[in-house]
Predict the 3D structure of the following.
Amino acid sequence: LQVTKAILDPFLRKLRQAVELTGGDICALQGALGASHRLEAHRDLISEGESAGAIRLILEGFACRYKVLDDGRRQITAYLLPGDFCDLHVGMLGSMDHSIGTITPCLFVNLRSDVLDELTVTHSRIARALWWATLVEEAILRQWLVNVGQRQAEVRVAHLFCELLVRLRVIGRAGQNGCELPLTQKDIGETVGISTVHVNRVLQDLRAKGLIRLTGRRLEVDDPVGLTRFARFSPNYLHLRHPEELVREEPVSLDRLLQLYCP
Amino acid sequence: LQVTKAILDPFLRKLRQAVELTGGDICALQGALGASHRLEAHRDLISEGESAGAIRLILEGFACRYKVLDDGRRQITAYLLPGDFCDLHVGMLGSMDHSIGTITPCLFVNLRSDVLDELTVTHSRIARALWWATLVEEAILRQWLVNVGQRQAEVRVAHLFCELLVRLRVIGRAGQNGCELPLTQKDIGETVGISTVHVNRVLQDLRAKGLIRLTGRRLEVDDPVGLTRFARFSPNYLHLRHPEELVREEPVSLDRLLQLYCP
DNA sequence: CGGCATTTTGACAATCGTCAATCAGTGTGG
DNA sequence: CCACACTGATTGACGATTGTCAAAATGCCG
């Protein structure tokens, strides 16, 4: 499978939130790309207990980190979207303390870790951007803990939607009025710590309030301002450098990006 | 205030869980130490929104990361114990997305960030150990999210105690039968996402089960095995290299450590 | 069309939160 | 030494949010 350049767009957009990458940086990153591969929905990329291997970057699809308890309950601890790493720095810890699984069919590229190690020495901006991504993941975890620990079910769900909307918008996958959101109600419940049945009730309430509609695999936002206010959402914890860009609905074509960045 | 060497013991013990430090590493770390200072209980070290400044290491006392909601509710997202950093890598993100406050009176040292930056280049083991500490923090956050999202109040509290016992044992501050634990029931509730009143009920239940007693500022563990089993606690997510050492009740004297490490 | 996953509904129960009062422990000043 | 204040712990009554169970409805895909 050939990795076309356009498919790196979400990744580059995301990193642009951390640092201003130069053309040289981008080309160097391309040089680290290894083999790409597909995985169908509901498969594990890595399971808890395994020792982390290759570094993988998601190009397409939804995946998640999760932990399963002995009684079968599952907690999703992160969503991995196009442009996110699966196991960038976690590998340093030795064995995985959680699993990573796909939600939809996904497309990945491997990154040659030796090349990447070298890059972080020769291209300090890249090193910085990669650590930024890891630290933002941690910040998101803190925010999730606040939601699950302190807020009511309805607010939790609203907040999750706000966050996903922003993250998808950063990578050019969401407009102001909605986005593709391939999560089941079970997934949502396992994310915010409520039962599937209650997720259903909450979604109906949010719809009745005129805030959102979750139909099929798509989230429609009827009242963006109201939703943000209801969820008490502030994107500060995402540490974006260019919040103003989030308004732009149109994805930037990668031709455009490469024009700008590669001399 | 003079930083004696002995007071670094928890820090060095903790890092030994990540990598085997050489005498040179330890001496280099000592060279990065700056001014030390005290702070009384219930004060903020850094508040949300501020831009992170100096890098600080806790030498003595309990502190925590937390977020406050607009309705006054608070969620503690991490405990900072002796040997833990307050703002090691978080500074890379610019502004703080949470606050750090003391629980007991605390003693800190500043670290010269320029010296530390240099260290991470010249002493790769140190760089590795510092990132390990950050990644373990993230792993703990994931585990907390699982607890708060999926488990019953009683199990949440039991699990928290297990974790704190292990972490305190690593730094030589806990035996098999208990430890100093200066948390109020309010603190515990704000950690595991339950009300203060319910914390009280849960503690009584745990005592009635013969597992633990929390009296004053001390946690007594009456049935360590039973507690671990009840909490479904596994220390894997703490990524310790020397779990066998946790059994040892006696703190290693720093004279001993320096004898071993400094030629 | 038929099978399967997902969503939806209703009834009921349980955990947990809230409120408000009391009790216990600790430190302070007279 | 004791009254006092203050914080933290404890108790009880009550209610609300949320979970569980089980069934029915809907949607999706071969």
